[in-house]
Specification:
Number of helices: 17
Radius of gyration: 44 Å
Low-confidence stretches: 1-6
Strand order of the largest sheet: 2-1-4-9-6-7
Shape: rod-shaped
Distance between the termini: 36 Å
Number of strands: 16
Strand content: 15-25%
Mean pLDDT: 80
Length: 611
């Protein structure tokens, strides 16, 4: 199922294609004559046009050709005051010679085997102004040379306003594509950084390579990056195409690990990747001038066939993943199908079959197909990132639950041990102290009263009180029955009566916090009060347990003489309190001055509820 974000991506893409297709520039097809070059001069070519040439209009597709071609265009006798330009809509012609009227020497020589600044008009395509020395020619003769490669041109004669309109539209399309790919690239980088997945890095590299290939295909690389490197102009597209295919194969196998590590399909993918790398390296280091035309034609045909096999291999691999129920394999299949569909339309257009679609969509068909492909691949990454987020949240919930379970078990174990100690202290030590007190009383009765027996009775009496106090602290009386508030009020009232210390107590907590958390709060408050009694010499004490912004706040303030919090942080009392607070993911802050001490404890209320 496609998410809302993914639907927006697809809707934006379809809207952009429809809008740009509707406003694309249209031009009546130009009639011209073409003639295969048999190594004759311009004068000889002019004489042969009447007997050997072919009249055509619109696109001229020579296919993979072994030789150059001549083209003759008859221009109007009358021109208006506008400036006119001739263009072929192909930036990758190696050599283009332009002859005006009956000239025997070319007026212009240009092409991607010549420096870019040699062109008479600054444009990625080959554009010729139809005016020279203030005169407008009556005919145009062109020699187009691209031996060993495909030659496809769509000749046009345009007014300056029409040319500017066409250039503006192409600039808009290119800007749209590069902006789109920049967004996809940043998204892939964020995916790789946040999730730390190699597939995100590979997708970012795939987008970079894909964008570089299209910029080279459009002629932007020759125009802006390597304007004097004709040899690299021939190499850039096949090398970048091989790199793009290699990265996509790696991306595909990374995003969708093979179902079986030993299968003919995964071996085929690995062999294909190795062949791509070897071909890219060989093409990079081999000078293009050393490759003769027949070998160049054979290489190009093999490359086209190899591309078809690679596409079939990708579809087969993804189909297996889809059949196996692997999530998001359908997205990749749709993306590849989108690219294949646009490329099919482009090839039909190049073959001269009219499909009643705008020229701009065909001129930029590969880019639109690749944009569509990235939509579905990006949608797969968005879906996977969303799944990862859900899995991480579920894992965090499980970790929290496990931590709560472990904390509760630990507290239960501690309480059982405390209860055992309290019973032993009460039943055993308490009983023994009571027996000693009775014996001391007998001694005092039997013998005349003296100071030693009186001190003995007093010491035993105090020991009994202390044992009871320790026993009660180990097992809070009636906490389960009465609840935390009443248990604390009872404890603080007893301390206030015994120590003659005024205590202000405020309690405002939810009733449904767990028993273990209540027990921890009881012990924390008890530890803090004992610290005040033992060390602060305070004349007043204030205790608050309140709820603030989904947190429990425990505030204990006294007006004693204070202490050095940094020096005392390793004391047993504060250490015990800090350990208890840490169980509940809380924080402990101590502010102590000579005029008093404030302890602030915060515990997340959402961390633990009774049910």
């Amino acid at each position: 199922m496609i998410s809302i974000n993914q639907k927006y991506l697809l809707l934006f893409y379809l809207s952009a294609v429809s809008l740009l297709g509707a406003c694309s520039y249209s031009q009546e097809p130009l009639r011209y004559q073409v003639l295969a070059d048999k190594s004759f001069s311009a004068v000889e070519a002019s004489g042969r046009f009447e007997q050997d040439s072919i009249w055509k209009e619109g696109i001229f597709n020579a296919g993979i050709t072994a030789y150059s071609w001549w083209m003759r265009v008859t221009l109007p006798d009358q021109w208006d005051e506008s400036k006119y330009f001739f263009m072929l809509n192909n930036p990758h012609i190696n050599l283009l010679e332009i002859y005006f009227s009956d000239a025997v020497t070319p007026t212009y020589i240009m092409g991607d085997h010549f420096p870019f600044d040699q062109r008479p008009y600054w444009n990625k395509d080959l554009v010729v102004p139809l005016e020279y020395d203030g005169h407008k020619p009556t005919s145009l003769l062109l020699k187009m040379s691209k031996p060993g490669e495909t030659l496809l041109v769509d000749p046009m004669i345009l007014k300056e306003s029409q040319l500017l309109q066409k250039v503006s539209l192409e600039t808009l399309l290119i800007g749209l594509f590069i902006g789109w790919m920049a967004i996809m690239f940043m998204g892939a980088c964020l995916y790789a950084i946040k999730l730390k997945e190699i597939s995100g890095i590979l997708y970012a590299l795939f987008i970079l390579s894909l964008t570089a290939w299209l910029c080279s295909h459009w002629g932007l690389g020759f125009q802006y990056i390597w304007p004097n490197a004709g040899d690299w102009t021939d190499k850039s597209r096949p090398i970048l195409g091989l790199i793009t295919n290699t990265i996509f194969l790696l991306l595909m196998t990374s995003f969708f690990p093979p179902l079986r590590k030993k299968s003919w399909l995964i071996y085929a993918v690995k062999i294909t990747i190795a062949l791509h790398v070897l071909l890219a390296i060989d093409t990079f280091f081999r000078p293009m001038s050393t490759i003769n035309i027949p070998n160049k034609m054979t290489f190009l045909k093999l490359t086209l066939g190899f591309s078809i096999l690679v596409t079939a291999l990708i579809i087969t691999y993804l189909w297996q993943q889809y059949r196996a129920g692997i999530q998001y394999a359908a997205y990749y299949l749709l993306g590849i199908s989108f690219l294949i569909g646009f490329n099919l339309l482009v090839h039909l257009h190049q073959a001269g079959i009219s499909i009643l679609l705008s020229n701009s969509l065909f001129d930029f068909g590969s880019s639109f197909g690749m944009m569509g492909e990235t939509i579905f691949i990006t949608a797969a990454f968005i879906g996977k990132a969303a799944d990862f987020k859900v899995e991480r949240e579920n894992l965090q919930l499980k970790l929290v639950e496990n931590e709560k379970l472990m904390a509760n078990k630990l507290i239960d174990v501690q309480e059982k041990e405390r209860n055992r100690l309290a019973r032993d202290l009460h039943d055993s030590i308490g009983g023994m102290l009571a027996s000693i007190y009775l014996k001391a009383n007998q001694l005092e009765t039997q013998f005349s009263s003296n100071e030693i027996t009186h001190e003995l009775k007093d010491l035993v009496s105090k020991s009994i009180v202390e044992a009871r106090s320790i026993s009660h602290n180990l097992t809070p009386p009636h906490l389960k029955e009465t609840g935390l508030e009443l248990a604390l009020r009872s404890k603080l009232q007893l301390i206030q009566d015994q120590a003659y210390l005024p205590i202000t107590f405020t309690y405002s907590l939810p009733a449904n916090i767990s028993q273990n958390l209540q027990l921890s709060l009881y012990r924390i408050c008890g530890e803090l009060v004992q610290n005040v009694l033992k060390h602060a010499q305070a004349s007043e004490l204030m205790i608050q347990l309140i709820e603030v912004d989904d947190e429990i706040e425990v505030i204990v303030e006294d007006d004693g003489h204070g202490f050095d919090a940094n020096h005392s942080k390793n004391g047993i009392g504060l250490t015990n309190i800090q350990d208890r607070v840490s169980y509940w993911k809380g924080t402990l802050a101590v502010d102590s001055t000579p005029s008093g001490t404030t302890v602030l404890i915060k515990i997340p209320l959402v961390y633990e509820y009774a049910g």
